[in-house]
Amino acid sequence: MSEYTAIRTCPLCEATCGLEIDVKDGVAVKVRGDKEDVFSKGYLCPKGAALHELHNDPDRLRRPLVKKNGEFVEVSWQEAFEAVEAGLLPLVEKYGRDAVGAYLGNPCVHTMAGILALRPMLKAIGSKNMFSASTVDQIPKQVSSGLMFGSVANVALPDIERTHFLLILGANPLESNGSLATAPNWPGRLRAIKDRGGRLIVVDPIKTRTAELAHEHLAVKPGGDAFLLMAMIRVLFEENLVDLGGLDDVLNGVEEIRALCQPFAPEAVSQRTGLEPDQIRKLTRELAAAESAVVYGRMGTCTVPFGALTSWLVDVVNALTGNLDKPGGAMFATPAHAPKKTKAGGKGWSLGRWKSRVKGLHEVMGELPVCTLCDEMETPGDGQIRALITVASNPVIALPNAARMEKCLENLDFMVSVDWYVTASTRHADVILPPTGPLSTGQYDFGFYGLSVHNIANYSPPVIPKPEDELDKWEILYKLAMIFSGQGAAGDPAAMDEFIISMMVGGACKREGSPLFGKQDEILQALSKYKGMERMLDFMLRTGCHGEGFGLNPKGLSLKTLLDNPHGLDLGHLEPRLPGILKTPSAKVELAPEVLVKDVERLEQALASPQDDMVLVGRRHIRTNNSWLPNIPSLLKGPPRSVLQVNPQDADRLGLKQGGMAEIESRVGKLTVPVEITENLRQGVVSLPHGWGHDLPGVRMKAARAYGGINSNFLTDDQAFDPVSNNSVLNGIPVEVRALD
Ligand SMILES: Nc1nc2c(c(=O)[nH]1)N[C@H]1C(S)=C(S)[C@@H](COP(=O)(O)OP(=O)(O)OC[C@H]3O[C@@H](n4cnc5c(=O)[nH]c(N)nc54)[C@H](O)[C@@H]3O)O[C@H]1N2
Ligand SMILES: Nc1nc2c(c(=O)[nH]1)N[C@H]1C(S)=C(S)[C@@H](COP(=O)(O)OP(=O)(O)OC[C@H]3O[C@@H](n4cnc5c(=O)[nH]c(N)nc54)[C@H](O)[C@@H]3O)O[C@H]1N2
Ligand code: SF4
Ligand SMILES: [Mo]
């Protein structure tokens, strides 16, 4: 009998908890929190505790599937890649590269391959039809960060470890464990703010568990945050509470903001926010008076009609209260894999380098928005998407207007999915390519150490060796890249790996003045111990801000340092980084970027526009993760979750009964849903979680099928989006609700 315990960072959400995993005879049998983890210190949630169940799930695909006569058949990898080549290349030849679209899902950000190996594939495809879950999620924050700080990577994070005052808008970290603010154990960290005498205020239409923990809960109307923040800014100016915290020379545009906020007096926004003018004034004064304070916004501020504007105003309030780049305020991470930037200034960041074919929606961060993905699949003509590649994504369950999406996938000429399961979406695929399981691949959170509220570096090697007949995700993505670049289905991903690392190292060694100049061979030799993603990580760590620099800084970091420290490295609290990290042409923070300033007109017009009687918002639960864990029995325990929550007054008015059924209808769809009546919702708001609805013909997930649930995205509207970021509106959907007998 072989038994061992492995240490592994959890890949399931942004919190990056350390796990201790018992393995017996090659099978993971138990997961605990790693008490020695420098960041999570033993904390874990029910999802992390079930990671081995995901790895062991018999429904998780181990072999590629190819559809033959309408049925999936297990085939060899070679046959699967040949099927991809035979299905896709003729379409490219006949219709051009834009005929192939790609939709990349959320789990891509949670794997090393998703961060490093997708780009070569996308480059090889060469289509402008690239989409990702970013445009149903955080892209508004990246737009505002790009415009203000010159780079979409410069996202200001709430320093929750030191703050005296945390104002949370539209986030529920007690269920989600945080987003764009990586930190294990949000419950503990929020309680710690209270324990040290700090204040916690939550603005959310629902009295969530996070709101319950707070000193105060302000039940804002969905979509109200931009108005609230504008009013707070006006109060700051009006009451002379503006304090730039010594950043006067770094902040451009303060006077413009003073002018912009004028129409938004607390009285003027009261109707839109559902908050009393006095509540807004008191909140602003408290925030301004706190020793340190930070506003933090998430899904409820992004997936709304003013997503980019709201995300921007969050940082404006932080700047105007002297809390930008200050301990306890909004700060920037210093990820170990990135070089330290010390000289402010750069080319800046812009959007709109190209436009979508059908609706002319602008590009953001190299992608087009998912709100127009169906348009691009449905509308005939040059550049129509005829084939789709989905990578770790579930468009039918995750994207607005699910009924339309279903039809579009059915009508594709060809579909390839890189996924672990036959899901609501991948059942439409012609080929499914499953990467090896979550415990058989290494983990370093490229995506999240740059968003972490404490500087951390941690690498975990595979817990269970990858079975010989399985492929890592990077191998699959490189194979696809090779097919598109004409090297054929027989191409060896190891050759592509060699090519990419030599390009990467070569590029760095070509820059005159760089300490690496001319040392390409030596450096490739020094990296030769590792392959694939690990080799790239080693290179990035060594050349990163704490790196050993290939001998220049012998005490610095490399992959070996992380391997020697399986519980992670604590690289300290967030540090002030302005103006060094700024990449704006002015080398200053642009508090009033033109694109966003222009959108204020739309906000002003919306002050007077009519409001909907009843709107739908989503919600998350600690035992779910979007649609990717519905087949794990231990996570399905507890009361039914896919239910419509309604406020008691609304229930009375509509004749809805606890446990009864209701019909809910939006512009795009109609669903029948069980009702749960709860005081936690504000009147006029109903809530249905996303991520359910797996009981469809062909789905191969036994537990998920038995659980079923309702896909709330049959109600969300693909025509509702924020015109600046093009992010979909998923919260505040106008609906009608009727009782059913
Ligand atoms: N109504 C509504 N809709 C929403 C949201 C909402 O709040 N309300 N939230 C939105 C948000 S924030 C997001 S991020 C999106 C997510 O949208 P998507 O990313 O499209 O969907 P997921 O549900 O995350 O599905 C992920 C798929 O990837 C597979 N998978 C998981 N891990 C891996 C892996 O390592 N490799 C591979 N190859 N496959 C893997 C899973 O089996 C699953 O099929 O949903 C959005 N949709
Ligand atoms: N357990 C679990 N954890 C997860 C996920 C999951 O599905 N389950 N998904 C992961 C992903 S992909 C993401 S992006 C993150 C998201 O992380 P969070 O943003 O923390 O998660 P949500 O639960 O969507 O929180 C959004 C809150 O906004 C509120 N809200 C809705 N509309 C408005 C509004 O107009 N204004 C305000 N102020 N509030 C509003 C909702 O009621 C909800 O409480 O969570 C991640 N973690
Ligand atoms: S909070 Fe997130 S990272 Fe931590 S155990 Fe749960 S799912 Fe994993
Ligand atoms: Mo997300």
Topology of this protein?
Elements lengths: L2 E7 L8 E7 L2 E7 L17 H6 L8 E4 L2 E4 L2 H19 L4 E5 L7 H5 L1 H8 L4 E3 L6 H11 L7 E2 L6 E5 L3 H4 L9 H10 L3 E5 L5 H5 L2 E3 L6 H14 L12 E2 L1 H7 L5 H8 L3 H13 L4 E4 L1 H4 L4 H14 L9 E2 L41 H6 L8 E5 L3 H4 L3 H9 L3 E5 L12 E3 L12 H4 L4 E4 L15 H12 L8 H18 L9 H7 L5 H12 L15 H6 L4 E5 L15 E2 L3 H14 L7 E3 L26 E3 L1 H7 L6 E5 L4 E8 L7 E3 L14 H6 L25 E2 L1 E5 L1
Parallel strand pairs: 6-7, 6-15, 9-10, 9-13, 10-11, 12-20, 15-16, 16-17, 21-25, 22-24
Antiparallel strand pairs: 1-2, 2-3, 4-5, 4-17, 8-14, 18-19, 21-26, 23-24, 23-27
One ligand MGD binds next to helix 16.
What does this protein structure show overall?
With about 750 residues, the protein is α/β, with parallel strands linked by helices. Among the domains are: about 1-55, Phosphorylase Kinase, domain 1 (2-Layer Sandwich), CATH 3.30.200.210; about 140-340 and about 585-605, Dimethylsulfoxide Reductase, domain 2; about 610-740, Barwin-like endoglucanases. Helices cover about 30% and strands about 15% of the residues. Helix 9 runs parallel beside helix 14 (about 305-320). The longest helix has 19 residues, at about 75-95. One ligand MGD binds next to helix 16.
